[in-house]
C-alpha cells in the first residue's frame, strides 16, 4: 500500500477547502436528489481511482437511499437492471465529463440530449458542478495518495 505524500492540498489551504465546501453546499441545495449526486460522485471517483472519494461516495449513496445492488454494481451500471433512465442519463454524463480527453467530442450530443430530457438547466448545472467538484477532489487526493478511511 502506498503512503500519503502530503496532506490534501485543500486542507493545507483552509480558504480553498472552505470554497470547495461552499460549492458542495450550493450543489446540495439545487434540487437534485442526493442519491443521484452521490452515485455520480462515486462513479467519477471510481474512474479516477480516488480511494477516499470512492469510500465516501459509497457511504453517501447508501445514506441517501441507494440500494446495495446499485452501490456494488455501479461500475457496470449499463449491464444491470438497478438504475432508472434518469440515473443512467446522469451516469453517462458523469462518465463523459470525467473522461473529457478520451474522445474527439468529449460530451457527445447523444449523451447531452438524453440528460437534457431528464434534467432542466438548473439540474444540469448542479450535475455538472457535482461532476467538476468530484473531479477536483479526485485530482487533489490521487496525486497525494490520500488513503480511504483516514478522516
Automatic annotation (TrEMBL):
GO function terms (MF aspect): peroxiredoxin activity
Alphabetically ordered keywords of this record: Oxidoreductase, Peroxidase
Keyword Oxidoreductase: yes
UniProt superkingdom: Bacteria
Alphabetized InterPro entries for the sequence: AhpD-like, AhpD_core, CMD-like
Pfam families in the record: CMD (PF02627)
Carboxymuconolactone decarboxylase-like domain location: 14-95
Protein name (database record): Alkylhydroperoxidase AhpD family core domain-containing protein
Amino acid at each position: 500500500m502506498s503512503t500519503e505524500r502530503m496532506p490534501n492540498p485543500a486542507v493545507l489551504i483552509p480558504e480553498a477547502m472552505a470554497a470547495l465546501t461552499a460549492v458542495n453546499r450550493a450543489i446540495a441545495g439545487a434540487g437534485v436528489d442526493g442519491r443521484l449526486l452521490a452515485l455520480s460522485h462515486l462513479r467519477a471517483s471510481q474512474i479516477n481511482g480516488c480511494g477516499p472519494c470512492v469510500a465516501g461516495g459509497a457511504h453517501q449513496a447508501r445514506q441517501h437511499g441507494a440500494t446495495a445492488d446499485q452501490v456494488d454494481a455501479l461500475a457496470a451500471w449499463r449491464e444491470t437492471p438497478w438504475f432508472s433512465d434518469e440515473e443512467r442519463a446522469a451516469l453517462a454524463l458523469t462518465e463523459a465529463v470525467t473522461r473529457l480527453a478520451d474522445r474527439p467530442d468529449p460530451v457527445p450530443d447523444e449523451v447531452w440530449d438524453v440528460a437534457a430530457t431528464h434534467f432542466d438547466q438548473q439540474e444540469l448545472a448542479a450535475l455538472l458542478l457535482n461532476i467538476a467538484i468530484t473531479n477536483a477532489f479526485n485530482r487533489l487526493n490521487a496525486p497525494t495518495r490520500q488513503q480511504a478511511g483516514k478522516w
